[in-house]
Design goal:
By secondary structure, the chain is α/β, with parallel strands linked by helices. The chain contains nine helices and eight strands. The strands form two sheets. A five-stranded parallel β-sheet has the order 2-3-1-4-8, with helices on both faces. Strands 6-5-7 form a three-stranded antiparallel β-sheet. β5 and β6 form a beta hairpin. α2 packs across α3 and α4 packs parallel to α5. The longest helix has 15 residues. The radius of gyration is 17 Å and the shape is globular. The structure holds BIS(adenosine)-5'-pentaphosphate (AP5) and magnesium ion (MG). BIS(adenosine)-5'-pentaphosphate binds next to α1, α2, α3, α6 and β6.
């Protein structure tokens, strides 16, 4: 099962990816997570990406495409994968199409998680992520049982440095200008499925699961 998860910053791509991973046993490939890991490790790639990420702009396509090419060559992608936050513009989508055609592994679906723009700011300013296991919480909508501590593994919960109002504003503009055209791109290919991203996380996941099963996704 090879799918692209589309959606604005804060729409719930990461939250839904974790649930998909668990049920369908396919890895989540999040370019944002890969880039953040490179930034904290201080690699040359991370140093190159940091300024764009801090500004809420996109990291250059060559950096991201190189990273994706390497990641898709790993053996855990045999059963498929969820692409979270990639592709992010039409050039990345075209390169992905070429890469997957060469591999003879076309995408099964692009799932758009649709959330009204007004609720995204609150979701992002309140987001808390576990530094150990990556679980996602929200101080307004989905608080942990104990402040600052992950319910799942007891790890420390942290705010992401790009979750401040100014950077969020740029990320939302970049989404509208560069990423939203992918909705039409995948619509034209007959791959687009839209799921409402408001409401209970479990209900949204049930709707995402229905889409995945309709395109051949199966539980491991
Ligand atoms: P990236 O890490 O991809 O961030 P993003 O697209 O801005 O998306 P987010 O991770 O912020 O949101 P999400 O949809 O995953 O939401 P989540 O599930 O966490 O990218 C970061 C940066 O990296 C970019 O700005 C760019 O610089 C660079 N980058 C990454 N990929 C790139 C690429 N391909 N090309 C170039 N540059 C790239 O949920 C958010 C919050 O909402 C959480 O607190 C959660 O608990 C809460 N929530 C979730 N669901 C619900 C619900 N149903 N109701 C209420 N609250 C909910
Ligand atoms: Mg995310």
């Amino acid at each position: 099962m090879r799918i692209v998860l589309l959606g604005a910053p804060g729409s719930g791509k990461g939250t839904q990816s974790k649930l998909i991973m668990e049920r369908y046993k396919v890895p989540q490939i999040s370019t944002g997570d890969l880039l953040r890991a490179a930034v904290s490790a201080g690699t040359p790639l991370g140093q190159q990406a940091k300024a764009a990420m801090d500004a809420g702009e996109l990291v250059t396509d060559d950096v991201v495409l190189g990273m994706i090419r390497e990641r898709l060559a790993m053996p855990d992608t045999q059963r498929g994968y969820i692409l979270d936050g990639f592709p992010r513009n039409l050039n990345q989508a075209g390169s992905l199409d070429e890469m997957l055609t060469d591999l003879g592994q076309p995408l099964d679906a692009a799932v758009l998680i649709h959330v009204d723009f007004e609720s995204l700011m609150q979701r992002l300013t309140g987001r808390l992520t576990c530094a150990s296991c990556g679980a996602v919480f929200n101080s307004y909508t989905h608080p942990p049982r104990q402040e600052g501590i992950c319910d799942l593994c007891g790890g420390e919960l942290k705010h992401r440095s790009d979750d401040n109002e100014e950077t969020i504003g740029s990320r939302l503009k970049v989404y509208q200008a560069q990423t939203e055209p992918l909705v039409e791109h995948y619509g034209d290919k007959g791959l687009l499925h839209t799921v409402k991203g408001e409401g209970e996380i479990e209900d949204i996941f049930n709707n995402v699961s229905k889409v995945l099963e309709s395109v051949g996704g199966s539980k491991a």
